[in-house]
Amino acid sequence: MGARSSRAAIIEPASSPTAAGLSPRSRRGRCFRVMLVEPDPQYQSLLGTGLAEAGFEVAVVPSAEAALEEMAAPQLPPHLVVAEASLAGMDGFLFCEKLRSEVRTALVPVLLLSSKREPFHAELASTVGADDYLPKPVRVADVVALARLKAGRRPSEMAYEAHAARLPLAQIARALLAGGRSGRVVLKDSEGFFAFRSGYVVDATFQGERGVAAFRRLLGFGGGVYAVSFGPELHRGSLLMDLPFLSEQVLPALERFDKLREVGVPLAARLTVDFARLVEHLATLPDDIISLVRLFDGRRGVRAVLLECRFAEVIAYEAITQLFSLGILMPASHVEERERPPASPSLFLTAADALDTMLTDDEDREDLPIFVEEQAVAAVASGEETEETEEAIDGEPLNEDELKAASVQEAPAPRRVPIILTFPKRPRILKGGEIQPGLLPMGPEGPRVSDKV
């Protein structure tokens, strides 16, 4: 079980101390210590190993007296105490009351576990100042979730803040229902909340929904930072959902949903309908599926469709995955690419294209304006031509003898072809009949001024 001190068996953490699940601002890389007061060897092993795997250092003692002796050492007290209520000698309730009476241990969170269920135990645990009371048999994951939530925190804190990436909402919801406290879990930015009281979920809201559907969607889609506050939850809720219902109905569907997210269509994907494929498979599709297909318009993501449709989330997600595999649903980006109009022909020609157009002897060709790139305009204006253009002027490359003969002979005067470089503007007539400079229409021989002003 690890190294032993004179009073307790120490189980070293099996992972990084940061795995304890608290806010990075509060843990600062510290290793949180848990005092486990448990006489049953089986629970010593199960709970001790589970807490150590979660990143806690665990000190295991069999009795309350041994725990008090361990905590009397000069070292700092533990960050959390998990104790059996039915202990030989000093029981867990007296032990918790003793801790609360000492200044040094008054603020240490205490979880009481009870192997003997009595109707008054939950009220007695609250009276002696225990943070929670869980009857056995208890799940190790529930104890670990409450330890992650409360270790290193003061019981006087109004709310315990956590993050869904380190402590998922489904885990903390099950752990809270396993205990006997009351309170509520509120998502940051007020996206939703659920209230619990004495092992029941009594109310839940999420993005406009309320009731069981809101609770399911909060656990499935809720994320980020949330706060758990404890206190009397007196308002009359809209539902009563106990731990068996959560364990048998909600959590299995949520596990299927999470597994499907790993291999299925991403929730952020925008899908649209391939109507040709829809017609092929229409006869084999259930009528209810058509209402789901209609929600995919290429603008909504899968997450938005799941929140809007009337089916249970996991059933709708499975149907969407099946429709996607059949090709009925397809990424909207593919349709946008397929339906994009062809590019219009460019009006701007390269220098070579412009030269070919000017030298074409086509009587039927209409004289259309030619728009040439800036570099081509400069080359044409200066009379410069590239070697490649000279060689290709007759349609076929010239050999060396022909090139020499062409250089000796006087080149014929180039055929003047009008090239419109700028659009002519209407001249502006100033006072006195003068025409504003720079706005004169261009003719073949330069600026041309109409005789009629």
Overview of this structure, please?
The chain is α/β, with parallel strands linked by helices and 453 residues long. Helices cover 37% and strands 16% of the residues. The protein has helices spanning 24-27, 41-53, 64-71, 92-101, 121-127, 140-150, 169-178, 212-221, 243-263, 275-281, 287-293, 302-308, 313-326, 332-338, 351-358, 374-382, 387-391, 400-408, and strands at residues 9-11, 33-37, 57-61, 80-84, 110-114, 132-135, 160-163, 182-187, 192-197, 200-206, 209-210, 225-230, 241-242, 271-273, 329-331, 348-349, 371-372, 442-443, 446-447. The strands form five sheets. Strands 7, 8, 9, 10, 11, 12 and 13 form a seven-stranded antiparallel sheet that branches. The longest helix has 21 residues, at 243-263. The termini are far apart. InterPro entries: CheY-like_superfamily, Sig_transdc_resp-reg_receiver, WalR-like. Keywords: DNA-binding, Phosphoprotein, Transcription, Transcription regulation, Two-component regulatory system. This is Response regulator.
